[in-house]
Amino acid sequence: MRAMEPETLTPDLCVVGAGSGGLSVAAGAVQMGASVVLVEKGRMGGDCLNYGCVPSKALLAAAHAAADARAMGRFGVTAPGGVAVDFPAVMDHVRDVIAGIAPHDSQERFEALGCTVLRESARFVDGRTLEAGGVRIRPRRVVLATGSRPRLPDLPGLAEAEPLTNETVFDLREAPQRLLILGGGPIGTEMASAFLGLGVPVALATRGEILPKDDPELRAVVRHRLRADGLVLYENADITEVARADDGGPVLCFRDGRWVAGSHLLVAVGREPGIGGLNLEAAGIAHTPRGITVDARLRTSNTRVFAIGDVTGGLLFTHRAGHDAGIVVRNALFRLPAKAQHHAVPWVTYCDPELAQVGLTEEEARKKHGDSIRVITEGFDGNDRARAERRTEGRLKLVTDRKGRVLGCGIVGPHAGDLIQPWVLALSQGMKVGPLATMIAPYPTLGEVSKKAAGGFYTPRLFGAGTRRLVRALARLG
Fold first, then answer.
1. What's the rounded Cα separation, in Å, for the pair 63 and 231?
2. Annotated binding residues for FAD, as ranges?
3. Which fold has domain 7-149+272-334?
């Protein structure tokens, strides 16, 4: 008896990966009339909902609440009994936030929209065909949105230490007695800030400096605050192995003979693309250890296949994946030659204080444009709202060309992720600082710092000798 042929689906679009990017493509395409098969082997919502943006920000919100409560005395407010952190209740809060958002990303919602959802692993059979759970899919176009996963370094003793990653740290039900963090990028720094705020002793070791992609002047503010909050920080650390203490806890061993012990170890040294099992070779899709290779239209070397978000490497952010989704929909459905524009993708590290950046840092701008750039720094200590809230440690650093066109902006301070948004618009639209300098900002707000920095571009000319001569000349005319 001949074996039964597998079922074959022939949709307009097959989306592999139900994280933020894949869900945006699927929702947009099906509502525009395309037939869509959505394949996801893990949790709907992907890393952002389940292991990344959402749980980390929920944990940080709890930490900020605890830190604010401890600091309320500076406002003349006291509470009997002090501040207590119920760690299991904090983690229940994290789960509750995830559960509140999950229906928007659920299988049921996408099936109601009209998608066919397969909760299986997908692999290419050939350049036009995929297989998922015994079902063959032969779409007109494919979108790979399989994200990324934590990278574990090749370090002796690490596996035996059973380290936490961002995929497991939110499963904790008891607070660590002392948390060790390996890695000083955004994830490691955010988790250090969160656990410190919750009263957990934290030691962080990183190969270079913390937040290496950000401006040194701005990340110095974060470093100072973390240390003031109790972080034991080891920068430029050379870790040779992970040992075990007598109580079974992890011990980070340094090449120079130092060591630091803890009860738990969180590894946050980077990400790797989620391409395992896709059988990209069968589809003729080029890739490197950093991710799938794409052109400006986000097409792979197999032009029927697009790739978006983390799986392509580069900027590993949910909002970047969302931007990519819109580009792919225009290309795949409408055959418009839309191109991804990543020069104005902002990023924010949501530690306390927050650190946000868009465009070029001062160092990057000098390498690209030489000494023709202008750099304007505006401190929060000159902002009345920051003074009222006693949060004056922040600053904004603006980089422009000699004509005032915005090249980049970095902000460290409370709500930096919100304050960066006018500068994202300015950079994406090729604007000069003039509109921001002349806008009417409500008083008193932290947003005034942007207006003041933009106005700072004109200060040397406005209050210079030429202006004074003109004013005196006009005064002589009566």
1. 14
2. 57, 146-148, 310
3. FAD/NAD(P)-binding domain (3.50.50)
